[in-house]
TrEMBL record:
It comes from Pisum sativum. Pfam families: Integrase_H2C2, SH3_Tf2-1. It comes from the Eukaryota. Residues 83-143 form the Tf2-1-like SH3-like domain. Residues 2-42 form the Integrase zinc-binding domain. This is Uncharacterized protein.
Length: 171
């Protein structure tokens, strides 16, 4: 999976070979409606919502912060480091992970079923989902265009267990 190089580069590449009336508007509409681009590319806007003060922790590892370090030139195999820091003691834990260069940023097109507070929304996730259904507005992206097929969550976010069936039913 990839995506397009944006409106300007796609338009420029096409304009070198072909032209028609309304071509710029057609390219803009096509790129904005592209499902792959919507999943793979971040939004170029300021984050939504109000800043909320963080609670002051009482115990070690009660509240943590999580971040990712990427693009380290000394690690050419596309290693990403996940950094977990305890907010009280400032103790940290680093874990290196190999990632694919074009991992999706956004998954699926899920319906908002409830507004939770000022900046959080509950989504209608699949029943097999292992993740909590409430997300901050900054983690959501508006879907533009028509959805032609159902898009799934990543494998690590879904329960993949065989169905449990009884051997026999007793009266």
């Amino acid at each position: 999976m990839g995506g397009h190089n944006g409106i300007h580069l796609t338009f420029g590449r096409l304009q070198g070979h072909i032209s028609w009336e309304g071509m710029r508007n057609n390219v803009i509409t096509f790129i904005r409606n592209c499902v792959i681009c919507q999943q793979m590319k971040p939004a170029n806007r300021a984050p939504y919502g109000l800043l909320q003060p963080l609670p002051i922790p009482d115990k070690v590892w009660e509240y943590i912060s999580l971040d990712f370090i990427t693009c380290l030139h000394s690690f050419p195999n596309h290693i990403v480091f996940m950094v977990v820091v305890d907010r009280l003691s400032k103790a940290s834990h680093f874990e290196g992970r190999h990632v694919h260069e074009l991992s999706k940023i956004f998954y699926g097109h899920f319906k908002i079923i409830k507004v939770v507070g000022e900046v959080a929304f509950q989504l209608e996730l699949p029943a097999t989902s292992k993740i909590h259904p409430v997300f901050h507005a900054s983690q959501l992206k508006l879907c533009i265009g028509v959805i032609t097929s159902a898009l799934e969550l990543p494998p690590e976010a879904v329960k993949r267990q065989p169905p449990i069936q009884p051997l026999i039913v007793l009266d």
